[in-house]
Specification:
By secondary structure, the chain is of the alpha+beta class. It folds into two domains: about 70 residues; about 45 residues, no CATH class.
């Protein structure tokens, strides 16, 4: 019996050409697949980076617009609240009033004491829907 040998020296010329052709086509196809994969990967990465950049730019623009609107609204609210005072403020550090369990200097608007008087902030809230609080603080001096 003739046993077929797998040694290349025993192969016919046709078999050798066929195997060589198959190997070359496999190498070429593998190279093409690698080149296409790398190119496609880079293209997808660039497109996704651009898409994320555009989304971030849109979010930034929206936040800037919201900030502008809120800043304008806060300015308008401040004008409405300021209109309810005489704007003749004095801070009496010798006269201390307890506010929230802590001593605070007396804050006056003209003759009107503002400490613990919530009528103006409550009226402002009723008119505008916003919140208002009036604070009086005595600055601490540093001892050297």
């Amino acid at each position: 019996m003739n046993k077929p040998s797998i040694h290349p020296n025993t192969w016919s010329v046709g078999t050798r050409i066929t195997l060589l052709t198959f190997a070359l086509i496999s190498i070429v196809l593998t190279c093409l697949i690698v080149v296409i994969s790398v190119g496609t990967g880079r293209l997808l990465e660039e497109r996704s980076t651009q898409a994320v950049s555009q989304e971030l730019n849109g979010v930034k623009n929206m936040v800037d617009l919201f900030n502008t609107a809120v800043t304008s609204e806060a300015g308008s609210f401040a004008k409405v609240l300021a209109a309810q005072f005489e704007n003749n403020y004095t801070l009496d550090t010798t006269n201390v009033i307890e506010v929230g369990g802590k001593p605070a200097p007396t804050l006056r608007d003209g003759d009107h004491v503002l400490n613990n008087d919530f009528t103006i902030p409550d009226r402002f809230t009723a008119q505008s829907g916003g919140n208002a609080t009036v604070f009086a603080v005595q600055a601490r001096t540093s001892s050297a």
